[in-house]
Each structure stands twice: as structure tokens, then as C-alpha cells.
Amino acid sequence: MMGKMADQRKRRPQKSGPRPSLLLVPLLAAAVLAAAGAANPRAACRSRDPDAHPVPGRSVPDEAAAIRQVLDDQARDWNRGSLDGFLEGYWKSEATAFAGTQGILRGWNALEARYRRSYPDRRAMGSLTFSDLEITLLCSDAALVLGHWHLEREGGPLGGVFSLVLRRFPEGWRIIADHTSSVATPAGVPGQ
């Protein structure tokens, strides 16, 4: 009898659930928002209710579309060779953060210097696409965006994943924190 019970336990399928690394994304977003609030009290969420929009007549789909437009504008400017235009999507503040393979950078000026050093000319920039965007409003004026990026260029394709935290300011949605990682992608297959 004991042998049968042990065999039955061995055959039970493993429970599936979110991978532990995916559980860290909401925690990362909360930590970034808390840090932004500490650095700038005005940056903290005014409301934790994503349906409580301070802009009359705006809905969750409107906000998601506005956030998507920031990323569309960034890709368009990048593909035109305009780093200045691309960088307009970021909050111009010393509290802006970027995490990547070279560590964590703080401040918009450091972010600009990194991009100018890594992509000194149009040829190095190549053609950028974003795909598989997942936009989650964390509150009425903060959002988390997950997605894939793909860069097609002469030196070979690059790609990876990103998580962004955006805040809504009077001038519109801006990226306050960017965590971008490279992931090996098959040539010519964005978002895979």
C-alpha cells in the first residue's frame, strides 16, 4: 500500500504557475515608483485607482493609446536618425533611471551620453521596432510597459526585452525608468 501511494505522488503533475522571475516585475515597478516618489514627491501616484483619471473624458484605452504613441514616436525618431527625438520619450530629470548590461545609470544626461556613445551615427542606429507591448496602468498617472525591441543594422541584428515605468506629466507620458536587456534573436525575426 505504501508503495502505491508513493507511486501516485510521483505521477501527479507539477502545478504550473508564474515563474518566480515574472513575479519580480510588479515588485520592480513598485520599487521604482516608490523611489521616484522619494526623489520627487509630486511623482508619486495621486490615486491608486487606475479608473480614477484626473483628466475628464479620458479612459484606460485612451491612456494606453497615449503611452503606445510615445513608443511609436521613439521608434519613428530613431529610424529617422534623431536621437534627440528618441530621447524626448524620457523624463528630463536626474531621477530618470536606466538599467542595462552595463549597470544602472541615473539621470537624463547620463542616459543621453550612453545613447550617443553607443549609437554615434545613423549607421550604428539601424532600424528599430518594438513588439509584443503589454501596457498596464498602475494608477491614473503611472504605467508599466513590457515588450520586445529589435534593431536591424549592418553589424547584425540585436534584440531583447524591456520593462518601462512611465509617468504622466503635464506635457504627457514620459519614461522614468527603463530596464532593457539583450536576448539572442534569430536574424530578421523581431520580437522572438
Q: Would you list the SSEs in sequence order as H and E?
A: HHHHEEHHEEEE
- CATH C-level label: Alpha Beta
How many H/I helices?
6
As a percent range, the share of helical residues equals 25-40%
Q: If strands are numbered along the chain, what order do they take across the biggest sheet?
A: 2-1-6-5-4-3
Low-confidence stretches: 1-44, 50-54
Number of strands: 6
How is the biggest beta sheet arranged? Answer: 6 strands, mixed
Strand content: 25-35%
Distance between the termini: 49 Å
Which architecture name does CATH use?
Answer: Roll
**What is the typical, i.e. mean, pLDDT?**
78
* Global morphology: globular
Give Rg in angstroms.
Answer: 20 Å
How many domains, as an integer?
Answer: 1
CATH topology: Nuclear Transport Factor 2, Chain: A
Structural class: alpha+beta
Structural commentary:
It is globular, with a radius of gyration of 20 Å. The chain is an alpha+beta fold and 192 residues long. Helix content is 36%, strand content 29%. The protein has helices spanning 2-11, 20-39, 60-79, 83-87, 108-118, 122-125, and strands at 97-100, 103-106, 127-139, 142-152, 158-169, 172-182. It contains six helices and six strands, in the order H-H-H-H-E-E-H-H-E-E-E-E. It has one domain (58-192): Nuclear Transport Factor 2, Chain: A (Roll), CATH 3.10.450. The longest helix is centred in the first third of the chain and has 20 residues, at 20-39. A hairpin with a 2-residue loop joins strand 5 and strand 6 (172-182). A six-stranded mixed beta sheet has the order 2-1-6-5-4-3, with helices on both faces.
